[in-house]
Design a protein that fits this description.
Number of helices: 11
Order of helices and strands: HHHHEHEEHEEEEHEEHEHEHH
Strand content: 15-25%
Radius of gyration: 20 Å
Largest sheet: 5 strands, antiparallel
């Protein structure tokens, strides 16, 4: 166990940021392979209809495989104009081909206006694997030493806001019409103290929070033996992924013309970006709905999941419908771009990208 995460004063008490803690959704409880069965059948049907198994890889022509799999996080940042850059957290790339010295790392950080604590993450990753909050140079050097050789690590400013959202964006390449097709509010895994139980005991009583300690690919930060005060909230992880006990809520009520306009301006300030999810941190839901006060952590393309479907209040049929609609729209956008001359990636190349990504994930330092 490690030191507990810093929690900004006042945020955790905000009712618009802090939801109740429901049980897991039907989709969360289902084995991943079982969820993939109906989605695979729909994908095959769409592939027959549009005459290509990999057509969605055309959705974002400047990104490897359109963002289906195997693309780097930095690809989305390259070529950003001033609007998109101003809304994106500061970052710098570090190669593990030859790990820089402490002095060289400090120089890189100064140039990128980065300070500790900061977040280190794999350029090639997903679901928060390998994402760690680092407090000092010693932790950063240990992270780089444990990282696979000849790969790229992204160092990024730590965003302390408690609010996190995944904003799903799509733009018609023919008409130029853009919309937000889904919004998920992501809540970090946590436990609430009772003044008697240890953190470990509280986690054992919470089936969602308990997932944060059941993986060799994740380190749970808090001291398991500490007894939190009554009503004290203890955040358990830097990341909010469901694989470590995070909670996703359907945030469609936050989709407004103002937010749509703000996200559309960012997407149009990126080279040929038509479909994907912006993962952002924000202060309050009212600011997010107004299209301001949010900062982009990372962007996902054609392979981005419609994570709002994992809301525990959304039934299985409704959740699958959301994902089906996402896949249908993805193929339609891919078809429009193919008509412009963008060619889909080959199936073998896509398979190799996926294999490489999965192999790397198994060797990343644990997230926290």
């Amino acid at each position: 166990m490690h030191a507990e995460l810093p929690v900004p004063a006042g945020l955790l008490s905000g009712s618009d940021i802090q939801p109740e803690r429901p049980g897991r959704s039907t989709l969360e409880r289902m084995p991943k392979w079982l969820i993939c069965v109906p989605l695979t059948f729909q994908w095959l049907w769409l592939a027959l209809r549009y005459r290509s198994l990999t057509l969605p890889s055309t959705a974002n022509p400047r990104i490897t495989s359109g963002g289906l799999v195997g693309e780097g996080k930095l690809e989305y940042f390259e070529g950003m104009g001033p609007i998109a850059r101003a809304t994106t957290a500061s970052y710098v790339a570090v190669s593990t081909h030859s790990i820089p010295s402490g002095a060289a790392l400090r120089q890189l950080m100064r140039r990128a206006v980065l300070f500790f604590p900061l977040v280190a993450k794999p350029d090639l990753g997903l679901c928060g694997y390998g994402v760690r909050l680092l407090a000092n140079m010693g932790e950063l050097q240990a992270y780089l030493a444990a990282f696979p050789a000849n790969e790229t690590v992204v160092l990024q400013a730590y965003l302390p806001q408690e609010g996190e959202a995944g904003i799903f964006y799509a733009r018609d390449p023919i008409t130029g019409n853009a919309r937000i097709i889904g919004l998920a509010l992501r809540y970090f895994p946590r436990v609430t103290g009772d003044g008697v139980s240890t953190i470990a005991e509280l986690m054992a009583l919470d089936p969602r929070a308990g997932r944060a300690v059941n993986s060799r690919l994740h380190d749970c930060r808090p001291d398991a033996g500490r007894i939190p005060a009554a009503s004290e909230i203890v955040r358990l992880a830097t990341i909010g992924s469901t694989r470590v006990g995070g909670l996703y809520r359907d945030g469609r009520a936050c989709i407004t013309p103002q937010l749509t306009a703000a996200v559309d301006a960012i997407a149009r300030d990126m080279p040929e970006f038509y479909f994907g999810r912006f993962d952002v941190r924000f202060n309050t839901l009212s600011e997010l709905s107004a299209g301001r006060g949010f900062t982009i952590m990372e962007i996902n393309g054609a392979g981005a999941e419609a994570i709002q479907a994992w809301d525990p209040d959304i039934g299985l049929a409704a959740g699958l419908k959301m994902i089906f609609q996402k896949q249908s729209l993805l193929f339609a956008i891919g078809d429009a771009l193919r008509r412009r001359g963008v060619q889909p990636i080959g199936l073998l190349k896509l398979f190799k990208l996926n294999r490489r990504q999965n192999r790397l994930i198994a060797h990343y330092p644990p997230s926290n």
